[in-house]
Structure formats: structure tokens, C-alpha cells
Amino acid sequence: MDRDASEPRVVVGVDGSPSSYNALRWAVRYAGLIGAVVDAVAVWELPGLYGWSAPAVDKDFDQDEARQRVRKELTDVLGADAADSVRTHVVHGNPADVLLRAAEGAEALVVGGRGRGGFAAALLGSVSHHVSQHASCPVVIVHPHKR
Q: Could you report the per-residue pLDDT of 15-47, keeping only the tens digit for each?
């Protein structure tokens, strides 16, 4: 991911969930307050990949198509003007690891919390729980609005 160390950044994980849309909105508002740019990071990985000795390839995954879908989601959630100010990254890897790397040097890492169980990992979601424990910057966990 390209990083310009001279400009403040807010990194937000997006995955199509309502809580990630709320996290995206929060990140854009916060970035506006502190004069930062927003890096929206969508991560894809192959299920069951861990434990294999050779890298797996998903022949059906089209990174350009995925990037276009993410851009459309950003426009749907934020509106065209605000979405144009957000930098989009579609990255292959483990979501927590990718977000932690992307957030190095950032002002904040913003993620949605979407779990529903009684344990901390289930309540926050495994990715939000992991990044909250290991990030080198402040982490904001945004939950979906209750109706």
C-alpha cells in the first residue's frame, strides 16, 4: 500500500457489513476533523488456505472487479463526492494482518464490530478483537446502529 508519511491517514476496514459502513462513515468524519486522508481497505482471502505449503490461487477472483465493487459500495454509502476522496485498496491476505500492516503510521484504524456472542472475541468479531490488541495506533470499533 502506498503511504505518504507526510500526510496523516485514517485506515478503515470495509467488508460489506453494516458495521463496516458505519466505520467508513466514522472514519471519513474523523479524517475531516484532523485533516487526514482515508484509506479504505478491503481484504480477500481463500477459505481454508492456512496449512497449505504452496500459495493457493483463486481463478475466479477478479481484483479489478472487486475494486469496482468496493468503489460502488463507497459511493452508495458516502455519496459520490465523499467517496472520491477515499483511497481504495483491495488486498489479498489475512484480514487482521493486512489491516495491521496498513495502519502502521496511521492516526487511527477504524473497523466494524459485528459479533453477537457473549465472549469478547465474539462480541467484537475476531478481526476487530485482534487488531484492538495488536495495532500500533489507536483503534476505533464501530458497531451497527440498532433499529
A: 988 899 999 999 999 999 999 999 999 998 765
Distance (Å, rounded) from C-alpha 143 to C-alpha 76?
A: 19
Going by the DSSP 8-state scheme, the letter that residue 9 receives in this structure is: E
For 37, other C-beta atoms within 10 Å of its C-beta total: 16
Q: Please give the Cα distance from 99 to 105 (Å, whole number).
A: 12
pLDDT beyond 60 at 50: no
DSSP 87: E
Quick check: 121 pLDDT over 60? Answer: no
Q: Provide the terminal-to-terminal Cα distance of the chain, rounded to the nearest Å.
A: 36
Alpha carbon separation from 14 to 18, 54, 67, 106, 111 (Å, rounded): 10, 28, 12, 16, 7
Q: What is the pTM for the complete model shown?
A: 0.83
Cβ–Cβ under 8 Å, residues 113 and 142: yes
| Relative orientation angle of helices 126-134 and 95-102, to the nearest 10 degrees | 40
